[in-house]
Write a structure and sequence with these properties.
Length: 579
């Protein structure tokens, strides 16, 4: 290895370790990595900047901006009425089929967010029997088209940057459709056997950790818990009391209450108004001087890349940062303790929020939170506009698939039409611009070029395959798939694709075989997020809503991952031959 290749190798190792063990945004890490290479003179300025106007990258950005308008549609609200009946397997089949179909063309996060509310609120089937299959169907459906998931478009960006022919909209269907169909059927068969039946939890009605403070001069002061009837609240249980930083638990019915006592309740937040109605008792979030906020109530999940993880609500300045106050926190089956403001947030925590008007925009822009519910209804389209926006988008997809109009041009026309009709505005597009994804992909393209130019890709391939003559293309393909699948569970699917692609492309060239099977292995490996709630954002979104435990994902995800991987490895060489 030359000195330059050693330096590049060390920087890339530092990048990978930082992605896995820190909460620093991938966009920042990739950007710093590219900047280091540029300052070292390892990449030309014009080449570096050209990566940020890659055709597939710009198409991805347009697609995400168009989705801003599609997310306002009321179509999903109407469709979900016909999904569920009392037969569990029939409901799973309908739910999985519709979710997969929609996720092939729409943002699957928005699809899951729209469907999970109705699933959580229905009484016929325990939501814990339906929500993991919902997430898996969204993941599977996204693998069937070029635009089904951002990962596929990212892979296409790398193909173009490497000198290959751009992928067609339908290239992914040959493997994706049979994999998705069998995957959904597997969920229908295995779900009733493997998924738990936890008590039904409804939207904004999970069992949350709620804090209330006794104000000075309150009639509660000097009276016992029993006398104040705090043990007789409807589905709200007083679990502990904090007095001058001293935790009292369990709380005796004969304990006299004092000014400043902080009461910690666990229960259904639909009944939280009982606390607000008690004279002298103030919900903790009101201590920030907010009162009732204009955006209404909302729910969000702390993401696996969130900067909030490991920090308390007090330390994060949550109110000023997101224009929202945390009313309550849910952590699945775990019993929380201590002051709400001193609670350290964890990945997957569900937050019940009193939200301001700017909350949704700020939350989406930060990437720290996945929105899973809101009662504000702001900006929603009526049914006529919803139909028009949907069919305009589908029209652009059909024209692109038939070769009549390039996808980029079609999406640009659709976005312009949305702006003209007032369904989105420039301010929304600026706020929702996915600058972090833009920086990750543009930087990753440059980083891959640097690694190739110093010979690091060739070294990595030689390390993985010391004797290329003795390694069959199929075994090499399996190695690429497993490497990408491992990375997607450790980091994120988009980052996994960016890291694995250069190695896969170099390996194909070393073996002297077609690069297409290896391109597809990276794409499908990066979408193989079934084993944990943290590998993909839809898994994390349903984590709290289904009241799941971590083991539930392993139990259901392992057979689905095995079926998915086996089919992918059998079908890729069939439709994309090595020679």
């Amino acid at each position: 290895m030359t000195l330059l290749s050693v330096i590049v190798f060390l920087v890339l190792i530092a990048l990978l370790i930082s992605l896995i063990v820190t909460r620093i945004k991938p966009a920042f890490l990739f950007g710093i990595c590219l900047l280091v290479f540029y300052l070292l003179g390892l990449i030309d300025r014009s080449i570096m900047l050209a990566n940020f106007i890659n055709g597939s990258l710009l198409t991805l950005l347009l697609l995400l901006l168009v989705s801003v308008g599609l997310e306002k549609s009321r179509l999903l609200d109407g469709l979900t009425r016909f999904l569920l009946n009392r037969n569990e397997r029939s409901s799973l089949l309908r739910l999985g089929g519709l979710t997969a179909l929609l996720s092939a063309f729409l943002n699957n996060t928005a699809v899951v967010a729209a469907l999970m509310g109705r699933i959580a609120s229905q009484k016929r089937i325990a939501p814990s029997r339906l929500l993991i299959p919902l997430s898996y169907a969204a993941v599977l459906g996204g693998t069937t088209t070029l635009i089904g998931t951002s990962t596929n478009l990212i892979v296409n960006s790398f193909v173009e940057a490497s000198g290959g022919d751009p992928l067609a909209l339908t290239d992914f269907m040959w493997v994706g459709i049979p994999v998705t169909a069998i995957g959904v059927l597997a969920c229908v068969v295995l779900g009733p056997r493997l998924l738990p039946t936890y008590p039904a939890v409804q939207k904004l009605q999970r069992r949350y950790f709620v804090e209330a403070v006794i104000e000075s001069g309150a009639p509660l002061i000097g009276r016992t818990v029993r006398e104040n009837q705090l043990r007789q609240l409807d589905d709200l249980f007083l679990v502990e009391l904090v007095r001058n930083d001293r935790v009292i638990a369990p709380v005796s019915p004969d304990l006299l209450l004092e000014s400043g006592d902080r009461l910690l309740f666990n229960g259904e937040t639909s009944n939280v108004q009982q606390l607000s109605a008690i004279a002298g008792l103030r919900l903790a979030h009101d201590s920030q001087g907010m009162g009732a906020m204009q955006g209404g109530m909302a729910e969000a999940v702390v993401s696996n890349t969130s900067n909030l993880v490991g920090k308390t609500l007090k330390d994060t300045g949550f109110r000023g940062r997101y224009d929202a106050a945390v009313v309550a926190v849910n952590r699945g089956h775990e019993q929380l303790s201590g002051k709400l403001g001193s609670l350290e947030l964890q990945v997957g925590d569900c937050l019940l929020l009193s939200a301001g008007e700017d909350f949704e925009q700020r939350a989406r822009d930060s990437g720290d939170l996945h929105l899973i519910g809101s009662d504000s209804g702001s900006g929603r389209l009526n049914m006529r506009s919803s139909l028009m926006s949907f069919f305009t988008f589908i029209g652009a997809i059909v024209l692109a698939a038939s070769g009549v109009l390039p996808l980029f041009d079609g999406l640009l026309i659709v976005l312009s039409f949305y702006l003209l009709m007032g369904w989105v505005n420039v301010g929304e597009l600026v706020q929702r611009f996915p600058y972090q994804l833009f920086l990750v992909i543009g930087s990753a393209l440059g980083i891959a070029q640097v690694a190739q130019s110093v010979g690091l890709i060739d070294i990595a391939v030689a390390f993985l395959v010391p004797d290329s003559a003795s390694l069959s293309p199929w075994m090499a393909l399996l190695m690429v798939y497993l490497l990408t699948m491992l990375l997607t569970e450790l980091v994120t699917n988009n980052v996994a694709a960016a890291l694995a692609f250069p190695v896969a492309w170099g390996l194909a060239e070393t073996l002297g075989v077609s690069t297409m099977p290896f391109v597809m292995a990276v794409a499908y490996g990066a979408s193989a997020s079934f084993l944990t709630p943290y590998g993909y954002q839809t898994n994390l979104m349903v984590y709290g809503a289904g009241n799941y435990r971590f083991f539930d994902y392993l139990k259901m995800g392992f057979p689905i991952s095995l079926i998915y991987g086996t089919l992918v490895m059998l079908l890729i060489p069939l439709f994309f031959p090595f020679y």
